[in-house]
Design goal:
Elements: H1 3-27, H2 30-36, H3 39-44, H4 50-83, E1 86-87, E2 95-98, E3 102-109, H5 117-137, E4 144-151, E5 157-158, E6 167-170, H6 171-179, H7 184-190, H8 195-222, H9 231-239, E7 247-248, E8 251-252
Parallel strand pairs: 3-4, 4-6
Antiparallel strand pairs: 1-2, 2-3, 5-6, 7-8
Length: 257
């Protein structure tokens, strides 16, 4: 892929990433986010100012959702474009690269987060099932079967072992393996140019709108008349069998006039 084409692809991926982030904030409601975050942690941190709590809730939500959004809106389309891989139909893997001599099966991840032993065993089984299926379907298959967990960032660069029966490549090692270019991982950030700064303005506007909506709905439901946060009511909403009256489905239930 020539530099201009790669730069255009990166620009498109970034636009999609920010569009999905903004849509996520636009469609998010207070009830949903309060149901999913740890109220005890926020209480233990000493937060007493409602706008600070709202910003912490939003930051926690973005932190947990961005990794997944970025993987599917940036790493996946870039990988697909530069590798020529086709989407795999088999469970537990994402892409297949076939040559005259090899079947390379790639499970694409954003980063090389450590897997526990049961997760590694599960990934082993999925790769083994894919190989068995290929051998059974293509009975005269003599191609080498190469299973790889590929990660968009990080430093992993290890061959298969007796316990982990697939290679694990990340960051520079992964992108060089796919493109043959040792500097490709640097080009991904270099060719972002000033696009993130431009997109961030729209994202900040969406953040501010979400924060304002949340504060509007939070104050009458979870603060008393003197302005104190009603932590017991907040914990009851998050963790009780029955939610307190007032907050239903994420928005404040308004009384009929």
């Amino acid at each position: 892929m020539v530099p201009d084409e790669l730069e255009q692809l990166i620009a498109s991926c970034l636009a999609n990433f920010y569009q999905r982030r903004i849509e996520g904030l636009t469609n998010l409601n207070l009830g949903t986010i309060l149901s999913k975050k740890n109220p005890y942690l926020f209480r233990a941190s000493g937060i007493a100012y409602a706008p600070e709590l709202i910003n912490e809730l939003l930051a926690a939500h973005i932190s947990s959702s961005d990794e997944s959004i970025f993987g599917s809106s940036f790493f996946e389309p870039v990988f697909r474009a530069v590798s020529g891989a086709r989407t795999a139909a088999a469970k537990g893997t994402d892409f297949v690269i076939e040559t005259d001599d090899t079947f390379t099966i790639i499970s694409l991840k954003s980063g090389p987060n450590a897997l526990n032993s049961s997760q590694v065993a599960g990934q082993n089984r999925e790769f083994e099932n894919i190989e068995r299926s290929l051998r059974a379907t293509l009975r005269n298959l003599r191609k080498a079967f190469i299973p790889i967990m590929g990660c968009g960032y990080g430093r992993a660069n290890s061959e298969a072992t007796s316990a982990r029966k697939y290679a694990k490549l990340a960051g520079q090692s992964f992108w060089e393996h796919i493109t043959g270019d040792a500097d490709f991982y640097i080009k991904l950030v270099r060719l972002m140019r000033d696009d993130p700064a431009r997109h961030r303005l729209d994202f900040e506007a969406a953040w501010n709108r979400a924060a304002n909506r949340f504060l509007r709905d939070f104050l009458p439901e979870f603060c008393d008349d003197t302005g104190n946060i009603l932590w017991e009511k907040l914990v009851q909403f998050n963790s009780g069998r029955d939610r307190p009256e007032g907050m239903q489905g994420g928005r404040r239930r308004r009384s009929a006039k």
